Structures are given as C-alpha cells and as structure tokens.
Amino acid sequence: MDASFSAVAQAIATHLEHGQPVTDEVDAAVQHLCGSARNAVPRQGFTAVPGRDHAAILARAVASGLNHSTAAIAAAIAALPGSLPWHYHYASRPGEVDLAERIGFAELIGPNGPLTAPECRVGFTLMAPGTFYPLHAHPAIELYLVISGAAGWTTPGAVRIVAPGQFVLHRSNQPHAMRTFGEPLLALYGWHGDIHTSAYYL
User: Is the pLDDT score of 1 beyond 60?
Assistant: First the structure.
C-alpha cells in the first residue's frame, strides 16, 4: 500500500512541475505543495482507519478526471488497492443538512496520512453532485487544484466557476465556500502554515 500512496504523491509532484505560472502567491504555494509531494515518505506506524464509504462518488469523479489535464493524478488514485480514509470532521448544526454523506476529506501526506513531509497536509476533498459546502475558514494557507468537476467557488468579493486543472488559493482565515452542480468534485488540497488547527464553519 505504501508504494501505491507514494505513486499518488509522485503523480501530484509531476503534474505540478509541468504547470504554467499563475501568480507569485499561487506559484509559491504550488512549489510548497510540489516539494511536499516529491519528498513525502511512508509514515512509520501508520495504520489505515476505515472511513466513510464514498466509493460510488469517487469512482464517478475519478472517471471524469481521466479526461482532463489532471488525468495522471486521477489514474494514480484509481490504482490504489484500497480505499482512501475518507472522513468528515465538522459537527452537525441544528436545522442544517448533515453533510457527512456528501462531503469527504482524505489526508494523503501529513500527521494523519500514510505519507509524511515537513510542515504540510496534502489530501483530497470529495463532494457529491448538488452539494453546498458552507462558508468556512482555517488558519492554514490552502491551495486547491481541481481534478474533476467544475464547481462554484465563493471567496470574499468573488464568485467563480473553477474548472479541472485550475487552482484556488485561500489565505489564512479567508472565508470560502463551494457548490457542486451536476457532477461530483474531486480536488487536491495542500495546507501550510498552521496545519494543526482544524477548519471551522462560520
């Protein structure tokens, strides 16, 4: 299993190394994420903890990802012999839909993942079609790379559609929200800075 996780990390690094410049701020985050993926090593004592079963949503998202510039990352995920450890850490809020069956996060590199690299968390966000991920924030600086599924992204002063292959940068504690439409969203995330304080709903 370690070799399969490492293959996903190397596919991420290779994709990022061949990307085109965006902005200085995004490029710096890309370089940090790329270095983390390239230098990630199996974490000693890692034991996979079964997570939520998002296999059907993931299969559809990966199949779509094979048709985009991020195909190598999607293919590496598809080649994993087991499931990624999907989880959802937000507490349910009275009067709101429980999103635990519609949104999942799986850490690949970091304190809770099968791989480790200094001062980072790298993983995947998966959202079912027709799902709204409410406004939230976190101290970590976050870079997203969409692998499949165009989604609506809300950040202060802007709402835009982000397509596969595009990046979104969230600064520390910057509020943001996402909405999927007719297909699932699969996106790579990279955290740096304060990687130990969890995201929170606003």
Answer: no
Tally of domains in the chain: 1
Paired tokens of 123: 């993983």
Q: What is the pLDDT of residues 65-82, one digit of tens each?
A: 999 999 999 999 999 988
Domain of 30, in residue numbers:
2-201
Quick one: average pLDDT of 149-169? 94
Q: What 3-state class would DSSP assign to 17?
A: helix
Residue 43 sits in a domain of what CATH number? 2.60.120.10
Using CA atoms, how far apart are residues 79 and 101, in angstroms rounded to an integer? 24
Other CB atoms within a 10 A radius of the CB of residue 47 amount to: 6
Q: What is the CA radius of gyration of the chain?
A: 16
Question: In the chain, which ranges are continuous DSSP H helix?
Answer: 2-17, 24-39, 55-65, 71-78
